[in-house]
Design goal:
The protein is mainly beta and 121 residues long. The protein contains no helices and eleven strands. Helices cover 0% and strands 57% of the residues. A hairpin with a 5-residue loop joins strand 7 and strand 8. It is elongated, with a radius of gyration of 14 Å.
């Protein structure tokens, strides 16, 4: 019943920018963490960035200074602004959220469907 709806992604040239957005909806009591993971071909899925309800942010070392994660005026929404994109940023990007559902005693991990980001000339 909890859903993560993603938008953004696409094909950009090196040095270009993309903005990914994700909105959580459904039987939500509290969104604890929202963020983004990515998976490049032949590689493990890795954390790109996340943000807690208290505003604490984590970034992968490879994206620091280039990517910015933010809550877009709603606790259930998150965006990832990606600047100065490189070919190695190519991969499937997944919205991720830790959510406490209504009626639940324990938080759970939820994932979006994934959106392709391709950085190529």
């Amino acid at each position: 019943q909890v859903q993560l709806v993603e938008s953004g992604g696409g094909l950009v040239q090196p040095g270009g920018s993309l903005r990914l957005s994700c909105a959580a909806s459904g039987s939500i009591f509290s969104v604890i963490i929202m963020g983004w993971y990515r998976q490049a071909p032949g590689k493990q899925r890795e954390l790109v960035a996340d943000i807690s309800t208290r505003g604490r942010i984590n970034y992968a070392d490879s994206v620091k200074g280039r990517f910015t994660i933010s809550r877009d005026g709603d606790k259930n929404m998150v965006s990832l602004q990606m600047n100065s994109l490189r070919p190695e940023d190519t991969g499937v990007y997944y919205c991720y959220s830790v959510i406490l559902r209504r009626g639940s005693l324990q938080s759970r991990d939820y994932w979006g469907q994934g959106t392709q980001v391709t950085v190529s000339s």
